[in-house]
Design a protein that fits this description.
The structure holds two protein chains of two kinds. Chain A is built from six helices and twelve strands. A six-stranded parallel beta sheet of chain A has the order 1-12-7-4-2-3, sandwiched between helices. Chain B is α/β, with parallel strands linked by helices. Chain B contains 22 helices and twelve strands. Chain B has a six-stranded parallel beta sheet with strand order 1-10-7-4-2-3, sandwiched between helices. In chain B, helix 9 packs across helix 10 and helix 16 packs across helix 18. Classes of the chains: A alpha/beta, B alpha/beta. At the A-B interface, helix 1, helix 2, helix 5, helix 6 and strand 9 of A face helix 2, helix 3, helix 4, strand 1 and helix 5 of B.
Chain lengths: 213, 483
């Protein structure tokens, strides 16, 4: 839809402006990367740091053994008092604990998702240093809208998915994802007098369970 | 209230535009508070990051590398984004970008559109253009709503409403949202905005965003935000239009490991911002099914061609430079007459205007270097400021009407005087006699007439000494040394 000449005009101007620049392939590999790409903490310390950082964001965090996972999910949901929950299509069946009205995402409409009170998902990775949860929106993590409209998000992580630094997440990525969401605490703003307010548009309540695997 | 003018073609020169702000105590208090809070948080989080300088170095190197190879990276981005189902448009200037966006919206039969905060859209003055053509643009970032509903303009690129305090926000929301009983508690104000926008997010089928990063390797786009309004706009609508400057590209997905670490700490003083979203073209069943990217030049390729000023385009719009700037901290953003204020605005705006407008901005700095020190991509802003000052001065000197300007007359005379030792000595003697009348008993000049008043208006001047160094030196040899 752009004027047909604009593409070549812009690219020509760029080429003229950068004439004599180094070839992309060669010089990219030579870029300095002397920042930390490897964490120093033990597995236990890593999880402890993640939990500390998540709690600084006011996230509700629980840790449990693998055989206590279902009970822990039930307890977190129970404490929230919520009943109507959405589940991504690929969420393990056993995570959908009894006593709730589960709406599995077989193409739920935005309105149906909006009417749900909460959502339970898995995750791809968590970065301890910044308290960041990374979703690649796999079938167990759900479409992006699932973790956006409901006000309450419970995310289940395995301890083996926790890395210490952000570069370690990227090193673990086999291929770049088409979709990704990095979540560091609940939605927030500081636009009014720099006062941090939790919960603007995204979920106001972030809950995390770390399974010691 | 005087409406701020952020069009560099219409704005007053900085010293004139700054005057009303400097007299507005409330505004200065609001700006000082906000910048103090952010700089404090940033300093704490940078101090705990032991590899901070290595990260800056890497961020700077990646951005420099991209600019040197911008053409191939943009073509790669275009190819991958297109392969993933996106449509890539190229806009040579602001007018063309506006037309492209309007044509897309027409095709969508859109009468309204929701927007993620994008300074690039403010740069091309998109909202008023869309309004003229019957499309209502709704800002969804909290700060942008405050400004839009209050008919105000952004004064900062990360926290655009930092010059507005809670009671002013309350007044705007109460009036425009019909909530007379609203309190001025930020929690209540934020909740009001949430309710105001919720329905809009669920019903308006077209959205416009900016981009923090375009990823050449994948054709993906990354948007960094806090509130979740961005996620709403880039997830719920049917159609999404992303407007991005051509300099926004990074080579690979992995490069985000550098950029995200430096950006959040520099911008808001957080280890990581609450939400970063990445999408690649169109994904079946998830998010908008029609996706357009508009790549905007609008003066950027000109900047790219000036090797010493090219570094301006490394900017990732974190605003650390304005928070740290002693000038910005006094005036806030409106005085800069551009959507890009502060030190980065002082170098970016006149260059985007091809040095035809905003020539006063490179002088709106004390050259203290605080901006360079905090810049996460190591843009040597003071160096560029000095280069641009030289360009502006060269321009002025060439203007015919400046020929009899006392400043240039004086400088031409000075250059004749300084070129010859005899003339220089004679001038020194005349100066000593001429200035005596204005010099106080303590040896200071407090007030000069005419052109000299420009100096003494704001500072005192040392009177000429009774003897110059050369006179003293010559006298020393002949034994006639004064104490």
């Amino acid at each position: 839809m752009s004027a047909p000449g604009s593409r070549s005009a812009v690219l020509d101007r760029i080429r003229a402006a950068t004439a004599g620049g180094a070839a992309a392939a060669g010089s990219y590999a030579a870029l300095p990367r002397t920042y930390n790409t490897q964490g120093e903490l033990s597995a236990g310390q890593r999880v402890a740091l993640l939990i500390e950082r998540l709690r600084e964001y006011d996230a509700d965090v629980a840790e449990c053994a693998p055989d206590a996972l279902i009970a822990t999910i039930a307890a977190q949901i129970g404490r929230s008092g919520l009943r109507v929950l959405v589940a991504p299509q690929g969420l393990p069946k056993e995570w959908m604990v009894a006593g709730c009205d589960w709406r599995v995402d077989h193409n739920l409409s935005h309105d149906q998702i909006e009417q749900a009170q909460g959502v339970v998902t898995a995750a791809t990775c968590a970065v301890a240093e910044s308290g960041t949860i990374v979703l690649h929106h796999t079938p167990a993590e759900g479409r992006r809208v699932l973790t956006l409209l409901p006000d309450w998000h419970l995310c289940v992580l395995r301890a083996s998915q926790v890395v210490e630094t952000l570069p370690e997440y990227f090193a673990h990525c086999e291929a770049p994802p088409a979709l990704a969401t990095f979540i560091s605490g609940p939605s927030a703003t500081a636009d009014i007098e720099m006062t941090r307010i939790k919960g603007v548009h995204g979920p106001r309540f972030l809950n995390v369970i770390v399974v010691r695997d | 209230m005087i409406l701020p003018v952020l069009d560099p073609k219409l704005a007053l020169p900085f010293p004139k535009a700054a005057l009303p702000v400097l007299r507005n105590a409330q505004l200065r208090k609001n700006v000082a508070h906000a910048t103090d809070v952010i700089t404090g948080k940033r300093a704490r989080l940078v101090a705990e990051k032991h590899d901070w300088q290595a990260l800056r170095e890497a961020a700077s190197a990646v951005r420099t590398h991209v600019l040197e190879n911008l053409g191939p990276y943009l073509e790669q981005f275009e190819e991958r984004c297109t392969a993933a189902g996106g449509v890539v448009h190229w806009a040579a200037d602001a007018a063309e970008a506006r037309e492209i966006v309007l044509a897309i919206l027409r095709e969508e039969q859109a009468s309204e559109v929701i927007k993620i905060k994008t300074m690039t859209s403010a740069e091309i003055q998109l909202n008023p253009f869309l309004a003229q053509h019957g499309v209502e643009a709704h800002e969804t970032d909290l700060a942008e709503i405050i400004l839009q509903l209050g008919h105000d303009e952004p004064s900062h690129i990360v926290v655009p409403a930092l010059h507005v305090n809670r009671s002013q926000v309350r007044e705007i929301f109460a009036r425009t949202m019909g909530l007379p009983d609203l309190s001025d508690d930020p929690q209540a104000l934020t909740a009001a905005a949430r309710n105001y926008l919720r329905k809009m997010f669920l019903t308006v089928p077209t959205a416009i965003s900016g981009a923090n990063f375009l990823i050449a390797e994948t054709g993906g786009v990354a948007v960094v935000e806090s509130e979740g309004n961005g996620r709403m706009c880039l997830t719920l609508p049917r159609t999404m239009v992303t407007l991005a400057g051509i300099e926004k590209v990074i080579p690979r997905y992995r490069d985000l490991e550098i950029m995200l670490q430096v950006l959040a700490r520099s911008a808001t003083g957080e280890r990581m911002n609450p939400y970063t979203s990445l999408w690649t073209g169109v994904t079946s069943g998830d998010g908008p099914q029609r996706f357009h990217v508009v790549l905007l030049d609008n003066g950027r390729s000109d900047i790219l061609g000036h090797e010493r000023e090219r570094q301006t385009l490394k900017c990732i719009r974190c605003a650390a430079c304005m928070n740290a700037c002693p000038v910005y901290r006094q005036t806030g953003g409106h005085a800069y007459g551009s959507v890009y204020p502060g030190p980065i605005g002082a170098i970016l705006t006149p260059q985007l205007m091809k040095m035809e407008y905003a020539q006063s901005l490179p002088f709106a700095s004390s050259l203290c270097g605080a901006c360079y020190e905090v810049c996460p991509v190591k843009i040597n802003i003071p160096e560029v400021l000095i280069n641009l000052r030289a360009k502006v001065t060269d321009q002025e000197r060439e203007e015919e009407r400046r020929f009899f300007d006392p400043l240039y007359l004086g400088l031409r005379m000075a250059s004749k005087v300084f070129a010859n030792a005899g003339r220089f000595r004679a001038a020194q003697r005349m100066m000593r006699i001429g200035m005596k009348a204005f010099t106080g008993k303590d040896g200071w000049i407090r007030s000069l007439p005419g052109y000299g008043a420009r100096w003494t208006m704001t500072r005192d001047l040392r009177g000429a000494p009774e003897q110059t160094f050369r006179e003293w030196w010559a006298g020393r040899a002949s034994g006639k040394v004064k104490a």
